[in-house]
Design brief:
mainly alpha; Serine Threonine Protein Phosphatase 5, Tetratricopeptide repeat
Length: about 900
């Protein structure tokens, strides 16, 4: 009778306006009815019941009767794809498009779906909850990451924070990717909703994706024990997947322990992959966790391992340097009579120039041609430092000849050795102040028969153009190419001309010829081209030529031509045109948006702030993952008087990267270079709370966070960041410092930062102990004295201030006594006097003598201007800095200094600015 009643209700449902409703359980009972019509109507009625029918359907899906189970699973499948009776028609249509599409069309359909409404986003969650084929899920997850990282900040900017929250949650909780969880944490830190997000995540059903989100949220909230517990569950769930990766990223627990500074626990973790420098890593853990006696024993063990090959000696020396034991490294290198280039770096840092020139190198012959070059590069620098510019020029020229004539590649040599040696020469010449010589040799390498060895064809290292021209590298390369189409003659004069064109010192005829050359269509790059940084994109070459034309015209004062070229370059910029760009190798990011920065900066420098803001914003709309453009747009509006809107855009710029550590690192570099201390501090906090170490790029990212902390005088954070950057080097296979001197200087920066932190906290005795340790290795550090002497004086610790100043002053005076022609030592003494506001009469004499020895050296003139300003000779200081600003119009540091000299207090602190 009951079955007949339910059937009657089903029949009545088609005729009655408000028929009695059967329960889901009653309808499930009819799924196995003998009548096909009854089964069909019961199935339809269950679907019409919507979510209320789901419990009964799930139970029926396990029914032993095949027909009942099949029909129940069929209705549930429709629910799983968000096909409910109340699903809006537009959502249902978008779902259908998604299911029917493939590839990019499928991704576009998903974007349309989640943009529709809350129901569309619920449908998107349903899609991601389904067991999609990996061939569909993985590309979809990658698309969602890129799409939402652009859509979420845009929604926030439009005031639609609720939709932004739904979108970022959809990615984090459904795709289960680390990037999605990082974005989710960043969003809630930025929006101030972190506590509620933590509570909601704690209440969610347990799953690996939920644990990943919890680990990221707890870490952002600095709830370390909870973060580690969730991260441990994630790492356990990821174990099988990680085992299949050749070089898996650090585990979440590993990253958390390093950030927290729990070195004992980090040491005891199973290794996630083979270490890059295992002995250095082991010694670092002994330094951070052991007793002094244990650490000393570890030092002896590492020194004993430095035997045999040059590589073993070098690795042992690196391990000692990275752990602040430079004297032990020096003893090892000198006794083994190997890696003499590295030994020379120690001597240079310790101002032991006689040892570097005459004691070590005639007695120790390097084991290879590259070893000889490596050693001679340091000798050339020392000759320059001690005032023998002619000798340095001759030696650098001999090295260049050797590197041009060596077979390419050298038989039995590592390709990287050859490339690194050439870049090492250019870097050494630049450090010695021989910029024109560096241009000559770089150009010759690029157009010599062995030009292909000029740099590695990878995105992980710098090109000659990066070394010589920094942010203008792409433009410089475009000018060089435009002047040498298909020619293989000596490119040295051309590279010098490139520099003159960018500085505005080229003759008018050369400027006109350059603009004509840049106006032409760039030829396709031939296979095996010696030129750097391009895979053959015509669009990129055209864009780089336009930017270069703008820079050349601007430097020459041709402003109509400059503006027209910048505008065309910006309009031609497209994401598919530039995979890399200047400095892109540092972070693994694209610089495709740079033409818009150049255009906006040009307008802002001309005082056209409203126009600049519009161009920056227009560029950001084309490149919504470029936070710098939005930040600069806001700044320009503030300068134009539209303060509220300007501040809104500046704030929104910090949302743009979300949890993307590479983009935040690149943004940080720009902020630090522009002296934007407040914004850099904000970025550093977001990076440390929401971004994770995933690959070797993180070493550069966390290093930028350290520089930002220095800019803000947050010494404790700076030290922690340096140590974390060193751990990336120690652990990540095939990672090394671009400049070998960094193995000595980077770890010792931690001593300086720790000393500054102790001094800021009022612990003067501890600060002095650390400062003395630092000066034991780098006795000529003007930076340490300039930072600590004025602060010690303010605190009334004049005896300690005298000690630090006198020690560094005496170190450079000794060099000058040994090498009376040393302009470098004169410049150091002048800078020390200026920054510490002591010995200003002598400082002025030294500064003028340094400038007289090399009138073109911008650094020497910069120091003289600072000395004059400190002495109250404001007019002459302003005149000098005006000249430097004219010669180097791209230098924001010089512009900031000029403003300071005009109106600042000569007794005030040094400006918070990093060199350009």
């Amino acid at each position: 009778m009951r079955t007949a009643t339910v059937v009657a209700l089903l029949i009545a449902a088609s005729a009655a306006a408000d028929p009695p409703r059967a329960t889901p359980e009653e309808l499930v009972g009819l799924l196995g009815d003998p009548s096909f019509a009854v089964r069909e109507k019961a199935t339809a009625a269950l679907w019409a019941a919507g979510k209320d029918a789901a419990p009964a359907l799930r139970k029926a899906a396990a029914d032993p009767r095949p027909e009942v189970a099949r029909r129940a699973r069929g209705v549930l499948a429709r629910f799983e794809w968000f096909d409910y009776p109340d699903t809006p028609p537009d959502v249902r249509a978008a779902l259908r498009r998604f299911l029917d599409a493939t590839g990019r069309e499928r991704h576009a359909a998903f974007a349309d779906l989640v943009a529709l409404s809350p129901s569309g986003r619920a449908a998107g969650r349903a899609v991601l909850d389904n067991a999609l084929d990996p061939a569909v899920r993985d590309p979809l997850a990658a698309f969602i990451l890129t799409h939402l990282r652009r859509e979420v900040p845009a929604r926030v900017g439009a005031g639609d924070t609720a939709t932004a929250a739904e979108l970022v949650a959809l990615h984090a909780t459904r795709s289960g990717t680390p990037a999605g969880a990082a974005d989710f944490a960043a969003f809630h830190v930025l929006s101030g909703t972190l506590p509620q997000a933590v509570a909601d995540a704690e209440a969610a059903p347990p799953s690996p994706a939920a644990d990943r989100v919890l680990a990221h949220l707890y870490r952002a909230a600095r709830a370390w024990p909870k973060a580690r517990a969730a991260a441990k569950r994630v790492d356990e769930a990821d174990a099988d997947r990680r085992s299949k990766l050749g070089q898996p990223p650090p585990t979440l627990v590993e990253t958390l322990l390093e950030e927290e500074g729990d070195w004992s626990a980090a040491r005891d973790l199973p290794a996630s992959r083979p270490a890059n420098l295992p002995e250095a890593l082991r010694l670092t853990y002994q330094r951070l966790t052991g007793t002094p006696e244990q650490f000393d024993a570890g030092v002896k063990q590492v020194a004993a391992l430095g035997q045999g090959s040059d590589e073993n000696v070098r690795d042992a020396a690196h391990a000692l340097m990275l752990n602040l034991r430079v004297p032990d490294a020096e003893e090892l290198l000198a006794s083994r009579r190997q890696s003499t280039g590295l030994l020379a770096e120690v001597y240079i840092a310790r101002l032991r120039y006689r040892d570097a020139l005459w004691n070590t190198f005639p007695a120790i012959e390097p084991a290879s041609a590259f070893g000889r070059v490596d050693t001679d590069l340091r000798r050339g620098r020392v000759l320059a430092l001690t005032g023998d510019r002619a000798g340095a020029t001759k030696l650098f020229a001999e090295i260049a000849k050797t590197l041009t004539e060596l077979p390419d590649p050298v038989v039995g040599a590592d390709w990287g050795d050859f490339s690194a040696a050439r870049r090492g020469l250019i870097r050494s010449e630049l450090r010695a102040g021989f910029r024109e010589l560096a241009c000559e040799h770089a150009g010759a390498f690029l157009t010599s028969g062995g030009g292909a060895g000029a740099s590695l064809p990878e995105a992980r290292t710098e090109s000659f153009f990066d070394l010589l021209f920094g942010a203008d590298a792409d433009a410089a390369e475009a000018i060089f190419r435009a002047h040498r189409p298909g020619q293989l003659a000596d490119g040295g004069p051309t590279m010098k001309l490139v520099r003159e064109l960018l500085l505005g010192t080229a003759p008018p005829a050369a400027v006109g010829a350059a603009l004509d050359a840049l106006a032409g269509e760039p030829p396709p790059l031939p296979g095996g081209s010696p030129f750097i940084g391009d895979a053959g994109s015509q669009r990129r070459q055209r864009q780089s030529r336009l930017t270069a034309a703008g820079l050349v015209a601007r430097a020459a004062g041709k402003h109509p031509e400059a503006e027209a070229a910048f505008a065309k370059a910006a309009e031609s910029a497209a994401e598919d045109a530039v995979a890399g760009g200047a400095r892109a190798w540092v972070y693994g990011t694209s610089d495709a948006f740079r033409p818009w920065v150049e255009y906006g900066d040009y307008l802002a420098d001309r005082g056209r702030f409203v126009d600049a803001a519009a161009r920056f914003e227009e560029g950001w709309k084309k490149f919504p993952d470029a936070p710098l453009l939005l930040f600069l747009s806001g700044q320009a509006l503030i300068k134009a008087g539209r303060v509220d809107e300007g501040r809104r855009r500046v704030e929104l710029s910090h949302w743009v990267p979300l949890g993307n550590e590479r983009v935040r690192g690149r943004f940080l570099e720009d902020l630090v270079k522009r002296g934007e201390a407040k914004a850099a501090a904000r970025e550093t906090d977001l990076l440390l709370r929401a971004c994770w170490s995933r690959d070797f790029y993180f070493g550069n990212v966390i290093n930028q966070a350290g520089r930002a902390a220095v800019l803000n005088k947050d010494w404790a954070t700076a030290e922690r960041c340096v140590q974390r950057a060193i751990f990336v080097l120690l652990k990540t296979p095939d990672v090394s410092y671009v400049d070998p001197a960094a193995y000595l200087h980077v770890p010792h920066d931690m001593l300086q930062y720790r000393a500054r932190a102790k001094l800021a906290a009022g612990d003067v005795p501890a600060a002095m102990v650390l400062a003395r340790q630092y000066l034991d290795v780098t006795p000529g550090s003007v930076e340490l004295s300039a930072g600590m002497v004025p602060e010690l004086e303010r605190r009334g610790n004049n005896k300690e201030a005298d000690e630090l100043f006198d020690r560094v002053w005496a170190a450079h005076r000794k060099v000058l006594a040994d090498f009376p022609a040393s302009a470098s030592s004169r410049n150091a003494l002048a800078a020390l006097g200026a920054h510490c506001r002591r010995e200003l009469d002598a400082a002025r004499t030294y500064a003028r003598e340094a400038v007289a020895s090399d009138p073109k050296a911008a650094g020497y003139r910069e120091t003289l201007a600072e000395v004059l300003f400190r002495r109250g000779e404001r007019a002459e200081a302003v005149k000098l800095m005006e000249a430097l600003t004219t010669e180097y119009p791209r230098s924001r540091l010089y512009r900031r200094q000029l403003a300071r000299y005009r109106t600042g207090d000569p007794a005030g602190d040094l400006p918070d600015a990093d060199a350009d």
